[in-house]
Amino acid sequence: xxxxxxxxxxxxxxxxxxxxxxxxxxxxxxxxxxxxxxxxxxxxxxxxxxxxxxxxxxxxxxxxxxxxxxxxxxxxxxxxxxxxxxxxxxxxxxxxxxxxxxxxxxxxxxxxxxxxxxxxxxxxxxxxxxxxxxxxxxxxxxxxxxxxxxxxxxxxxxxxxxxxxxxxxxxxxxxxxxxxxxxxxxxxxxxxxxxxxxxxxxxxxxxxxxxxxxxxxxxxxxxxxxxxxxxxxxxxxxxxxxxxxxxxxxxxxxxxxxxxxxxxxxxxxxxxxxxxxxxxxxxxxxxxxxxx
Length: 292
Description:
- The protein is α/β, with parallel strands linked by helices.
- The chain has two domains: 4-78, CATH 3.100.10.20; 87-291, Four Helix Bundle (Hemerythrin (Met), subunit A).
- Helices cover 46% and strands 17% of the residues.
- The protein has helices at residues 52-60, 87-96, 99-123, 129-137, 146-159, 172-193, 212-217, 222-234, 242-249, 265-281, and strands spanning 4-8, 12-17, 20-25, 31-34, 38-43, 49-50, 64-68, 74-78, 255-258, 261-264, 290-291.
- The strands form three sheets. Strands 1-5-7-8 form a four-stranded mixed beta sheet, with helices on both faces. Strands 4-3-2-6 form a four-stranded mixed beta sheet.
- Strand 7 (64-68) and strand 8 (74-78) form a beta hairpin.
- The protein starts with a strand and ends with a strand.
Protein backbone atom coordinates (compact mmCIF):
# COMPACT_ATOMS: atom_id res chain seq x y z
CA UNK A 1 0.00 0.00 0.00
CA UNK A 2 1.23 3.49 -0.86
CA UNK A 3 1.87 5.43 2.34
CA UNK A 4 1.03 9.12 2.61
CA UNK A 5 3.59 11.80 3.40
CA UNK A 6 2.15 14.79 5.27
CA UNK A 7 4.05 18.08 5.40
CA UNK A 8 3.19 20.48 8.24
CA UNK A 9 4.32 23.89 6.95
CA UNK A 10 2.63 26.29 9.34
CA UNK A 11 1.76 26.69 13.01
CA UNK A 12 -0.19 23.61 14.05
CA UNK A 13 -0.87 21.05 16.77
CA UNK A 14 -0.40 17.36 15.95
CA UNK A 15 -2.33 15.07 18.27
CA UNK A 16 -3.85 11.60 18.24
CA UNK A 17 -6.93 9.65 19.31
CA UNK A 18 -8.39 6.31 18.24
CA UNK A 19 -5.45 5.57 15.87
CA UNK A 20 -6.07 8.84 14.04
CA UNK A 21 -3.51 11.63 13.65
CA UNK A 22 -5.15 15.05 13.97
CA UNK A 23 -3.48 18.16 12.57
CA UNK A 24 -5.11 21.37 13.75
CA UNK A 25 -3.69 24.37 11.91
CA UNK A 26 -4.19 28.10 12.43
CA UNK A 27 -3.83 28.82 8.71
CA UNK A 28 -5.39 25.79 7.01
CA UNK A 29 -8.30 23.45 7.57
CA UNK A 30 -7.79 20.82 10.25
CA UNK A 31 -7.40 17.24 9.07
CA UNK A 32 -7.59 13.75 10.58
CA UNK A 33 -5.71 10.86 8.96
CA UNK A 34 -5.61 7.15 9.89
CA UNK A 35 -2.13 6.61 11.33
CA UNK A 36 -1.72 3.33 9.44
CA UNK A 37 -1.96 5.27 6.16
CA UNK A 38 0.99 7.51 7.05
CA UNK A 39 4.51 6.80 5.89
CA UNK A 40 6.06 10.00 7.24
CA UNK A 41 5.11 13.30 8.82
CA UNK A 42 7.45 16.19 7.93
CA UNK A 43 7.33 19.13 10.32
CA UNK A 44 8.77 22.32 8.84
CA UNK A 45 7.39 24.94 11.21
CA UNK A 46 9.06 25.88 14.50
CA UNK A 47 5.61 26.73 15.83
CA UNK A 48 4.25 23.19 15.54
CA UNK A 49 3.45 21.20 18.68
CA UNK A 50 3.19 17.40 18.74
CA UNK A 51 1.77 15.39 21.64
CA UNK A 52 3.25 12.24 23.21
CA UNK A 53 0.15 10.19 22.22
CA UNK A 54 0.74 11.24 18.60
CA UNK A 55 4.37 10.07 18.80
CA UNK A 56 3.25 6.76 20.33
CA UNK A 57 0.64 6.22 17.62
CA UNK A 58 3.12 6.96 14.81
CA UNK A 59 5.59 4.49 16.34
CA UNK A 60 2.96 1.80 16.80
CA UNK A 61 1.86 2.08 13.17
CA UNK A 62 5.42 2.07 11.82
CA UNK A 63 5.44 5.70 10.65
CA UNK A 64 8.37 8.10 10.81
CA UNK A 65 8.44 11.70 12.03
CA UNK A 66 10.88 14.10 10.38
CA UNK A 67 11.77 17.51 11.82
CA UNK A 68 13.23 20.09 9.41
CA UNK A 69 15.63 22.98 9.95
CA UNK A 70 15.35 26.59 8.76
CA UNK A 71 16.33 25.51 5.21
CA UNK A 72 13.50 22.95 5.21
CA UNK A 73 16.05 20.12 5.30
CA UNK A 74 15.40 17.24 7.72
CA UNK A 75 17.55 17.54 10.83
CA UNK A 76 16.09 14.66 12.85
CA UNK A 77 14.12 11.45 12.32
CA UNK A 78 11.93 9.67 14.86
CA UNK A 79 11.57 5.95 14.06
CA UNK A 80 9.74 3.08 15.77
CA UNK A 81 11.87 0.67 17.82
CA UNK A 82 9.59 -2.25 17.02
CA UNK A 83 10.54 -3.86 13.71
CA UNK A 84 10.13 -7.24 12.07
CA UNK A 85 8.88 -10.24 14.12
CA UNK A 86 12.26 -11.92 13.42
CA UNK A 87 14.24 -8.79 14.17
CA UNK A 88 16.82 -10.49 16.43
CA UNK A 89 17.63 -13.14 13.81
CA UNK A 90 17.82 -10.60 11.01
CA UNK A 91 20.15 -8.27 12.94
CA UNK A 92 22.30 -11.29 13.82
CA UNK A 93 22.62 -12.09 10.08
CA UNK A 94 23.36 -8.41 9.43
CA UNK A 95 26.15 -8.27 12.01
CA UNK A 96 27.69 -11.60 10.96
CA UNK A 97 27.56 -10.85 7.21
CA UNK A 98 30.98 -11.74 5.76
CA UNK A 99 33.25 -9.09 4.26
CA UNK A 100 33.18 -10.75 0.80
CA UNK A 101 29.37 -10.65 0.87
CA UNK A 102 29.37 -6.98 1.91
CA UNK A 103 31.77 -6.14 -0.91
CA UNK A 104 29.67 -8.04 -3.45
CA UNK A 105 26.50 -6.24 -2.36
CA UNK A 106 28.24 -2.86 -2.51
CA UNK A 107 29.45 -3.67 -6.03
CA UNK A 108 25.87 -4.39 -7.13
CA UNK A 109 24.59 -1.18 -5.51
CA UNK A 110 27.27 0.92 -7.23
CA UNK A 111 26.55 -0.77 -10.56
CA UNK A 112 22.87 0.05 -10.16
CA UNK A 113 23.56 3.66 -9.23
CA UNK A 114 25.86 4.21 -12.21
CA UNK A 115 23.38 2.54 -14.55
CA UNK A 116 20.56 4.77 -13.30
CA UNK A 117 22.74 7.89 -13.61
CA UNK A 118 23.55 6.98 -17.20
CA UNK A 119 19.88 6.30 -17.94
CA UNK A 120 18.91 9.73 -16.57
CA UNK A 121 21.50 11.42 -18.79
CA UNK A 122 20.24 9.55 -21.85
CA UNK A 123 16.67 10.62 -21.09
CA UNK A 124 17.82 14.22 -21.74
CA UNK A 125 19.75 13.30 -24.89
CA UNK A 126 23.14 13.47 -23.11
CA UNK A 127 25.80 10.94 -24.11
CA UNK A 128 26.28 8.51 -21.21
CA UNK A 129 28.31 5.78 -22.89
CA UNK A 130 31.29 6.18 -20.55
CA UNK A 131 29.15 5.92 -17.39
CA UNK A 132 27.37 2.85 -18.77
CA UNK A 133 30.82 1.36 -19.36
CA UNK A 134 31.91 2.20 -15.80
CA UNK A 135 28.84 0.40 -14.43
CA UNK A 136 30.06 -2.81 -16.07
CA UNK A 137 33.62 -2.43 -14.78
CA UNK A 138 32.84 -2.20 -11.03
CA UNK A 139 34.65 -4.89 -9.05
CA UNK A 140 33.82 -6.34 -5.65
CA UNK A 141 33.93 -3.57 -3.04
CA UNK A 142 34.56 -0.98 -5.79
CA UNK A 143 38.33 -0.73 -5.05
CA UNK A 144 38.79 1.60 -8.03
CA UNK A 145 36.17 3.98 -6.60
CA UNK A 146 34.28 4.00 -9.89
CA UNK A 147 31.31 5.44 -8.01
CA UNK A 148 33.26 8.69 -7.46
CA UNK A 149 34.64 8.68 -11.02
CA UNK A 150 31.14 8.28 -12.37
CA UNK A 151 29.85 11.08 -10.10
CA UNK A 152 32.42 13.56 -11.44
CA UNK A 153 31.42 12.80 -15.02
CA UNK A 154 27.73 12.71 -14.22
CA UNK A 155 27.42 16.09 -12.47
CA UNK A 156 29.41 17.92 -15.16
CA UNK A 157 27.23 16.47 -17.90
CA UNK A 158 23.99 16.95 -15.96
CA UNK A 159 24.28 20.42 -14.43
CA UNK A 160 27.30 21.89 -16.24
CA UNK A 161 31.05 22.06 -15.62
CA UNK A 162 30.72 24.74 -12.92
CA UNK A 163 28.35 22.71 -10.72
CA UNK A 164 29.67 21.43 -7.39
CA UNK A 165 27.70 18.92 -5.35
CA UNK A 166 27.55 20.34 -1.81
CA UNK A 167 25.46 19.27 1.18
CA UNK A 168 25.26 22.87 2.35
CA UNK A 169 24.86 24.43 -1.09
CA UNK A 170 22.08 26.50 -2.59
CA UNK A 171 19.90 26.31 -5.73
CA UNK A 172 20.15 22.79 -7.21
CA UNK A 173 21.94 21.52 -4.11
CA UNK A 174 19.14 22.68 -1.82
CA UNK A 175 16.56 20.85 -3.93
CA UNK A 176 18.74 17.74 -4.18
CA UNK A 177 19.26 17.70 -0.42
CA UNK A 178 15.53 17.94 0.24
CA UNK A 179 14.69 15.17 -2.23
CA UNK A 180 17.40 12.88 -0.87
CA UNK A 181 16.21 13.52 2.68
CA UNK A 182 12.67 12.45 1.78
CA UNK A 183 14.06 9.24 0.25
CA UNK A 184 16.28 8.68 3.30
CA UNK A 185 13.37 8.97 5.72
CA UNK A 186 11.27 6.54 3.67
CA UNK A 187 14.09 3.97 3.43
CA UNK A 188 14.90 4.33 7.14
CA UNK A 189 11.29 3.52 8.03
CA UNK A 190 11.27 0.42 5.81
CA UNK A 191 14.71 -0.71 7.02
CA UNK A 192 13.46 -0.71 10.63
CA UNK A 193 10.20 -2.42 9.65
CA UNK A 194 12.24 -5.13 7.89
CA UNK A 195 14.11 -5.96 11.10
CA UNK A 196 17.43 -4.43 10.05
CA UNK A 197 19.48 -2.03 12.16
CA UNK A 198 19.87 1.27 10.24
CA UNK A 199 23.35 2.05 11.62
CA UNK A 200 25.07 -1.20 10.51
CA UNK A 201 26.11 -0.57 6.92
CA UNK A 202 27.92 -2.68 4.34
CA UNK A 203 30.03 0.22 3.02
CA UNK A 204 29.28 3.40 4.95
CA UNK A 205 30.75 3.07 8.43
CA UNK A 206 31.03 6.53 9.99
CA UNK A 207 30.75 6.06 13.76
CA UNK A 208 28.76 9.32 14.03
CA UNK A 209 26.19 8.25 11.41
CA UNK A 210 23.14 6.43 12.78
CA UNK A 211 21.93 5.61 9.25
CA UNK A 212 24.91 3.95 7.55
CA UNK A 213 22.81 1.15 6.05
CA UNK A 214 20.20 3.63 4.84
CA UNK A 215 22.96 5.60 3.10
CA UNK A 216 24.11 2.39 1.40
CA UNK A 217 20.65 1.45 0.16
CA UNK A 218 19.66 4.94 -1.02
CA UNK A 219 22.35 5.15 -3.70
CA UNK A 220 20.47 3.60 -6.68
CA UNK A 221 17.46 5.84 -5.94
CA UNK A 222 19.31 9.17 -5.97
CA UNK A 223 19.09 9.62 -9.78
CA UNK A 224 15.29 9.69 -9.51
CA UNK A 225 15.61 12.83 -7.38
CA UNK A 226 18.24 14.26 -9.75
CA UNK A 227 15.80 13.93 -12.63
CA UNK A 228 13.05 15.72 -10.68
CA UNK A 229 15.45 18.60 -9.88
CA UNK A 230 16.50 18.85 -13.53
CA UNK A 231 12.84 19.11 -14.55
CA UNK A 232 12.27 21.85 -11.95
CA UNK A 233 15.27 23.77 -13.30
CA UNK A 234 13.96 23.56 -16.85
CA UNK A 235 10.78 25.22 -15.64
CA UNK A 236 12.91 28.09 -14.21
CA UNK A 237 11.35 27.68 -10.77
CA UNK A 238 14.41 27.00 -8.60
CA UNK A 239 13.67 27.51 -4.92
CA UNK A 240 12.09 25.75 -1.95
CA UNK A 241 8.54 26.58 -2.96
CA UNK A 242 5.57 24.52 -1.86
CA UNK A 243 5.16 23.31 -5.45
CA UNK A 244 8.79 22.20 -5.77
CA UNK A 245 8.73 20.40 -2.44
CA UNK A 246 5.60 18.55 -3.55
CA UNK A 247 7.36 17.51 -6.78
CA UNK A 248 10.32 16.16 -4.82
CA UNK A 249 8.07 14.25 -2.41
CA UNK A 250 6.19 12.81 -5.39
CA UNK A 251 9.43 11.18 -6.58
CA UNK A 252 8.33 8.33 -4.30
CA UNK A 253 5.45 7.75 -6.72
CA UNK A 254 7.64 7.61 -9.85
CA UNK A 255 7.72 4.31 -11.69
CA UNK A 256 10.71 2.00 -11.68
CA UNK A 257 11.54 -1.45 -13.04
CA UNK A 258 12.44 -4.14 -10.51
CA UNK A 259 12.71 -7.86 -11.20
CA UNK A 260 11.10 -7.37 -14.64
CA UNK A 261 8.01 -5.68 -13.18
CA UNK A 262 7.00 -2.01 -12.90
CA UNK A 263 6.41 -0.51 -9.46
CA UNK A 264 6.18 2.89 -7.85
CA UNK A 265 9.37 3.66 -5.91
CA UNK A 266 7.70 3.60 -2.50
CA UNK A 267 6.07 0.27 -3.37
CA UNK A 268 9.29 -1.34 -4.60
CA UNK A 269 11.41 -0.32 -1.59
CA UNK A 270 10.07 -3.05 0.76
CA UNK A 271 10.70 -5.68 -1.95
CA UNK A 272 14.20 -4.33 -2.57
CA UNK A 273 15.08 -4.33 1.12
CA UNK A 274 13.57 -7.80 1.64
CA UNK A 275 15.82 -8.98 -1.21
CA UNK A 276 18.77 -7.34 0.59
CA UNK A 277 17.93 -9.26 3.80
CA UNK A 278 17.94 -12.52 1.83
CA UNK A 279 21.31 -11.65 0.29
CA UNK A 280 22.90 -11.25 3.73
CA UNK A 281 22.93 -15.02 4.30
CA UNK A 282 22.39 -16.46 0.82
CA UNK A 283 24.49 -15.98 -2.30
CA UNK A 284 21.77 -14.24 -4.26
CA UNK A 285 22.02 -11.34 -6.65
CA UNK A 286 20.68 -8.07 -5.31
CA UNK A 287 17.99 -6.87 -7.70
CA UNK A 288 18.40 -3.12 -8.19
CA UNK A 289 15.44 -0.91 -9.20
CA UNK A 290 16.11 0.84 -12.52
CA UNK A 291 14.64 3.85 -14.25
CA UNK A 292 12.17 3.13 -17.04
